[in-house]
């Protein structure tokens, strides 16, 4: 027999089928066991950072180590080294306990590892994503022909909206950038907006001064008269208004801007109207909440995150627009080496990213497994949990500051309690529950958001007890 002409592939990276099966089976069991411990344990990390850093220092990668050992080590450290969205007493930021179909999707995507840049490389995945986006566009009420794509985040989707607005408003933007505009440009959102907009105007090159933070109505919603005044004042001084982003489900208080009024102002002044529904948009799954979003179907574009209230794994956003041709104008590029088949569908020709993970499978499997009705039940349950917490706290003299119809509650304790920030710090460090300190309409509040699909009455009681604990 002649000697092999190639060395063997490194088995640590490419173990044989038997070894892979053994490790995958062990991993599945270890993750389920960890998840069960996590849901009963501390919500807050208990890891000693300094010691952990020293421990990491021992990984100098000079010699291989057994993967099984590394996996066990990782799970153990994550169990104590993250805030647990998987814990039903996490009443946190908009980070969900990931639903199970989306976790399955991640395994499948990781295994096939399809390249979603082009429809030529990945015809089935690209079609699946486009199908889900069309279903979402239809749910929003956008006209047929509306389209869009999955993003890694709401921020990427919001950034995409600004690039589209800039591209459509001034044809010279393509070659000359903002220098092609007749004057400085501006975009508008409310001062209760999600703060990623500050980074977005910076990275889009219009500058942070271009971000107009419009005042609110005292209830967390954009003041439409103030928006109109600001737009008029800008126009009078030679500024070009390009984008208004109204918010459907503010980060702080879960409020929805007056979408029809906002849209009317945008039409009057030829401004791109984007609706940032990163968190709240999932509530479109519930027929009962539809009225809250009236007017969203008029928007030029919409952001909805699947990794928030749709509870897929991180990060999975969506950008949806009635003007898909603007996406092609903004992100077109010539690349002879790319295996294109349907360029209108090729993500690399219509989006910010190039190489791209099969993110949309997460929402496809979740939505297909649960149906809209399953998601409606998920949404309504979260709203019911928030209502329960609201009633329990009100009964104890707490003031409820926001009047959101969604699953977020902003509360202030009665007299005699520690200031909000100290109170929240104490709750968080107790590990018994997790809530956020936030500000809405200038007030410091305890922000309680229901993000776990299985939070029980006992979990709400634990939160209330943690908030009420005096020491
Ligand atoms: C979360 C959120 C964002 C940012 O989305 P990411 O996915 O975290 O980048 C933007 N706007 C609103 C209203 C949000 O709730």
Report on the structure:
This protein has 471 residues and is an alpha/beta fold. It has three domains: 17-82; 107-366, Type I PLP-dependent aspartate aminotransferase-like (Major domain) (Aspartate Aminotransferase, domain 2), CATH 3.40.640; 371-468, Aspartate Aminotransferase, domain 1 (Alpha-Beta Complex). Helices cover 42% and strands 12% of the residues. The chain is built from 14 helices and eleven strands. The chain has helices at residues 17-40, 49-57, 67-81, 100-112, 123-140, 154-169, 173-176, 196-203, 224-236, 259-269, 324-331, 360-395, 420-430, 457-468; strands at 147-151, 185-190, 211-214, 240-247, 272-276, 301-305, 317-321, 399-400, 408-412, 436-440, 443-449. A seven-stranded mixed β-sheet has the order 1-7-6-5-4-2-3, sandwiched between helices. Strands 8-9-11-10 form a four-stranded antiparallel β-sheet. Strand 10 and strand 11 (443-449) form a beta hairpin. Helix 6 (154-169) packs across helix 11 (324-331) and helix 9 (224-236) packs parallel to helix 10 (259-269). The longest helix is centred in the last third of the chain and has 36 residues, at 360-395. It is globular, with a radius of gyration of 24 Å. The chain starts with 16 loop residues before the first helix and ends with a helix. The protein binds pyridoxal-5'-phosphate (PLP).
